[in-house]
Design a protein that fits this description.
By secondary structure, the chain is of the alpha/beta class. It is built from ten helices and six strands; from the N terminus they run E-H-H-E-H-E-H-H-H-H-E-H-H-E-E-H.
Length: about 260
């Protein structure tokens, strides 16, 4: 049996303000930091301390992973950052209020950009993208930085990380913790569970809730959909994620250890 734990970063400042973040580096809120600590305590209590941790290169994921390991009293395990685990690039929507985008463009286009597999938001202005071109985290992407991504694009750039890094470590018997983002984790869950487009559109990943997958020797889930360590709290937060842009947000207080 192989064990993979997926964790969306804790609530960020832009989560709390209902803004599209994408590849913009956004700090965690105090609630997000406590969500990360709570996740670490859950992992320790469940006996799920990881052998290795993989995150995106975005600060909110890295900070979450650091707080998780500290709270779990499990610092010192290898932590590797991958741009391929980054959140979806939301293009020109980055920094915009979800409710304002919904009001301006209507429900159909809003859901196409936010939940569908193929829908790509309007591209970010090239001038706004230049700062990323000089960021050493993206050196290997010189001249190929995305200006906007669909979930299909996220899946295409994430799968090489799965095939060449994560899957081999799981086959080697390592328990992995992957700390990433709502859309990169949606892409990974869709790959694990073999979701169709309707299933992908309905999938919502809550912040700060560890999701455990037990995998067989072929890395097929023993239980489709995995299992949240706190299923009721995860269901409430996932429902709130589905309502983002309609006046609600996901910022439910973290559970108690």
């Amino acid at each position: 049996m192989k064990t993979l734990i997926l964790l969306r970063h804790g609530e960020s400042e832009w989560n709390s303000r209902n803004l599209f973040a994408g590849w913009v580096d956004v700090a965690l809120t105090r609630t997000g930091e406590e969500q990360a600590r709570h996740a670490g305590r859950l992992l320790r209590t469940a006996g799920l301390l990881p052998d290795a941790v993989h995150t995106s290169v975005l600060g909110r994921a890295v900070h979450t992973a650091t707080l998780v390991l500290r709270a779990a009293r499990h610092e010192g395990v290898p932590l590797t950052r991958h741009w391929r685990l980054n959140e979806r690039h939301y293009g020109a929507l980055q920094g915009q209020d979800r409710a304002a985008v919904l009001a301006r463009y209507g429900e159909e286009r809003f859901l196409l950009w936010r939940r569908s597999y193929d829908g790509t938001p309007p591209p970010v202005d090239p001038d706004a993208q230049r700062a990323l071109a000089d960021d050493p985290r993206y050196a290997e992407l010189a001249g190929r930085l995305p200006r906007a991504e669909s979930l299909a694009d996220v899946t295409a750039r994430l799968l090489p990380c799965w095939d060449t890094v994560l899957a081999p470590e799981l086959h080697a018997g390592r328990r992995l913790l992957v700390v990433a983002h709502g859309n990169s984790l949606r892409a990974l869950v869709a790959r694990l569970d073999g979701l169709d487009r309707a299933g992908i559109a309905a999938l919502n990943i809550p912040t700060g809730m560890p999701l455990r997958y037990d995998l067989d020797d072929d890395l097929v889930p023993v239980r489709r959909g995995g299992r949240y360590l706190e299923p009721e709290a995860a269901a409430r937060r996932a429902a709130a994620v589905a309502e983002e842009g309609r006046g609600r947000r996901e910022g439910a207080a973290p559970g108690r250890a």
